[in-house]
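TICKET: design request
STATUS: open
ATTACHED STRUCTURE:
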């Protein structure tokens, strides 16, 4: 059984970023295997008013993204069960068109290009502030 950490945020309008659920809190899926990093990302997003679901494997991330409506996905590349690039490609093949932000310690320019070519909308190297 997969584990999902969920806590709704308040006060952030999806319409401000072109989301489809006007007037609703933006919902973000975080796919990050490091529990401390997942907690830090989730907490930061919640403090900004986002609703956040966090999972720790690529399989869980794909299942959550397919089963729920998200406004964005934050994706780590080094997951325990799958390469994050494969997860990104799979989400796009499934027709999931929400913005995908890759957060990764792998941050050479060629890696960023590969991530964008896999379907990500942006790529941010770790560590970040």
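STATUS: resolved
RESOLUTION: sequence designed for all positions
ATTACHED SEQUENCE:
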């Amino acid at each position: 059984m997969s584990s999902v950490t969920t806590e709704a945020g308040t006060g952030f309008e999806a319409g401000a970023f072109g989301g489809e659920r006007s007037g609703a809190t933006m919902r973000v899926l975080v796919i990050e295997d490091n529990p401390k990093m997942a907690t830090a990302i989730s907490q930061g997003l919640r403090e900004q008013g986002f609703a956040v679901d966090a999972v720790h494997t690529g399989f869980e991330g794909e299942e959550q993204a397919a089963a729920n409506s998200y406004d964005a996905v934050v994706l780590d590349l080094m997951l325990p069960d799958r390469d994050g690039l494969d997860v990104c490609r799979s989400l796009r093949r499934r027709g999931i068109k929400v913005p995908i932000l890759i957060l990764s310690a792998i941050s050479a320019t060629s890696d960023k290009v590969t991530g964008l070519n896999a379907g990500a909308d942006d790529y941010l190297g770790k560590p970040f502030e």
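CLOSING REMARK: The chain has one domain: 5-125. Strands lie at 5-7, 27-31, 51-55, 72-76, 100-104, 122-125.
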